[in-house]
Amino acid sequence: MLLLLVILGYPIGRGFYLSFYKYNLSTFDPPTLIGWANYEKLFADPLFIEAFKHTIIFVVTSISLEFALGMMIALLLQLDFKGRNLLRGVTLLPWMMAPVVTAFVWSWLLNGTYGIVNYALTEVGLISKPIEWFTSTNLALPTLIFIDVWQSTPFVMLVLLAGLQNIPESLYEAARIDGAGSVRSFWHITLPLLKPSAAVALLMRTMIALRFFDAVWIITRGGPANSTEVLATYAYKKSMLGFRMGFGSAATTIIFLLAFVMSIGYIRLILRREA
Fold this sequence. Notes:
The chain has helices at about 1-20, 35-45, 45-80, 85-90, 95, 100-110, 115-125, 140-165, 170-175, 180-195, 195-210, 215-220, 230-240, 245-270; strands at about 20, 30-35. It is an all-alpha fold. Helix 6 (about 100-110) packs parallel to helix 12 (about 215-220) and helix 13 (about 230-240) runs antiparallel to helix 14 (about 245-270).
């Protein structure tokens, strides 16, 4: 408990404390208590509202896709076939890559000028000219969502696969004897018993997705025209680049509160008792 208080409680508490102060590192003025003024300015800033919307879109879309794909891959890898262990290892490779490395690799692959993806699509005749994946206001955010789904789906798959392996085979055998097909077995056996594993996967991915930063900062830095600005990049710009530590702390506090509320909501939704 003491360790958690030091490495978790103090930074969170310090950030919440500074969010009520005017604290600019570019001056030598001491922190000045201003109450809720930082939060009032925050919600009056159109860029913050836009970053908030982008964050919600990113979290909901990426987690939905990751959970659907992770479930399908986990069910596939649960089957007994030759080369299953090798395929499991290969499937985990994207998750093993550092987020920074992943961002750089995809920024090269999807480069509008020399990217191999545009080259391949042009060669097979699917497109007539290169697609500007990261400089188009309509494609930049979906492309970043794709990158996150590509890297994070193996984590969801791994957690769900662990849950599938803990389900007794005798339950499926009893269901088959009673005449239940694959769909009914999945709906009445697999899904209910996967709720704890699903809760862990959704909880972890929600907290991580809400502070999604690496790929956005490396590839677009919130552009073009703020179309990929998320709460993490917004807070970083205000605090670390703008030296407005009080204002930036208010933004990071919003991220923390949003993560807390969404995590509780996911857990209540998944682990609630059936009537």
